[in-house]
Specification:
The protein has 382 residues and is an alpha/beta fold. It contains twelve helices and twelve strands. The strands form two sheets. Strands 2-1-3-4-5-11 form a six-stranded parallel sheet, sandwiched between helices. Helix 7 links the parallel strand 6 and strand 7. Helix 6 packs parallel to helix 7 and helix 8 packs across helix 9. The longest helix has 31 residues. It starts with a helix and ends with a helix.
């Protein structure tokens, strides 16, 4: 009997040891599944933090290598050349490439160029001096294809999803017209060089009409303008007007609504020796600035937005669209007024140097973002 009790005691002890060892094993297993002392929520946060930077990098990488089409109504003159240069340089800084599709002031050709850009499946399209009626079909095709568009001086405000970049054209005209009136003493005879059919020109005409009402003693004696060959046509037409009004004092000034018009009028006036006539223009390039600085030139002042900056800002807004941002429907670029009196007389300067003499001129940070700056840095580091 005693032997039997002893045997039962050993069995009970063995069972106890088995249970204890099983419990210890289970505890170690549980501890092994959570080797970090951090809580589950802390662990998840760490995971999110670790993945945030790669996600941002991926977002920037996705912006590289974009193919951009620049569809232009015309690319005449140095202003357009500097604008195109601004577009190309900014796209290159973002790691993309630009194809320029110029239309030689032919709206039918511009519409065909827009269709071509859509058919070639460019990643994005920039439109310069477009026309709503002529481009409607192409713009709708681009929207259906999911191709973002940013337009400059094109009057496409009624098209949903398109960001419209524009100079403050009424202010451009006001600056120059008010200076003309001031220097003419509020009276005199003027020639207007202007052409209809372009959104910026139509806006400038609003200010011109207000100007004629404000200064009734300033009389318009001639008006003309042709965008197909603007400089040469203006020179020829201005020569005819000078013959029609041959005496000094017959013409006080010329208001030119485009720098190509201003150059043509200035050439005719200078060649005729009519140094009493002053020219007031709109837009400004390196070539224009050199003419204004020339003390023998009749062109004395212009109002403008830096053409290179226009191209730069337009590209930034297109890349915002690539990034998925909601962009403004209208982006206004504020102009500055440049008069010969504010420029140096001992040297010829370029538009890159103009900010040293004219407040408000120069590079703009409009449309820039932190991720676009990071994109530039990433491309530059390659």
């Amino acid at each position: 009997m005693k032997q039997r009790k002893s045997k039962l005691s050993w069995i009970a002890l063995a069972l106890t040891l088995v249970l204890v060892l099983a419990a210890c094993g289970k505890k170690e297993e549980n501890n092994a599944g959570s080797s970090s002392p951090a809580s589950p929520s802390a662990s998840a946060a760490a995971s999110e933090s670790a993945s945030a930077e790669p996600s941002q990098d991926a977002s920037i990488e996705a912006l590289k290598g974009k193919r951009i089409a620049l569809v232009m109504r015309f690319n005449t003159g140095t202003f357009s050349a500097q604008y195109v240069d601004g577009v190309k340089k900014q796209v290159a800084k973002f790691g993309g490439e630009v194809t320029v599709l110029a239309s030689e002031n032919d709206l039918a050709k511009m519409a065909a160029n827009l269709d071509s850009a859509v058919n070639q499946k460019f990643d994005g399209i920039l439109v310069d001096h477009g026309d709503a009626a002529a481009l409607t079909n192409g713009l709708n095709k681009a929207k259906e294809a999911g191709i973002p568009i940013v337009a400059f001086d094109s009057g496409l405000n009624d098209f949903e999803g398109i960001t419209n970049l524009a100079q403050n054209d009424q202010l451009l005209a006001e600056y120059t017209l008010e200076k003309l009136a001031e220097e003419a003493g509020g009276k005199g005879n003027i020639v207007k060089v202007w052409v209809a059919g372009f959104p910026p020109m139509e806006s400038r005409q609003i200010s011109y009409k207000a100007f004629t009402e404000k200064y009734p003693d300033i009389k318009e004696i001639a008006a003309f303008g042709d965008a197909s060959n603007p400089q040469l046509d203006t020179q020829n037409r201005m020569e005819a007007v000078l013959k029609q009004y041959p005496n000094k004092g017959d013409i006080t000034a010329v208001w030119a609504s485009w720098d190509e018009f201003a150059k043509g009028a200035s050439n005719a006036i200078k060649q005729a020796g009519r140094d009493e006539i002053k020219v007031y223009g709109i837009d400004l390039s390196d070539e224009d600035l050199k003419i204004i600085q020339d003390p023998t030139s009749p062109w004395v002042a212009s109002a403008a937005v830096d053409p290179t900056s226009i191209g730069t800002v337009q590209v930034r807004y297109l890349y915002q669209k690539f990034h998925g941002d909601t962009t403004d429907a209208v982006v206004q670029l504020e102009p500055v007024f440049v008069h010969r009196d504010s420029l140096p007389t001992d040297k010829v300067i370029t538009t890159d140097e103009l900010s040293q003499y004219v407040e408000g001129w120069g590079s703009s940070d409009l449309g820039n973002t932190d991720y676009l700056r990071a994109l530039e840095q990433a491309v530059g580091a390659q």
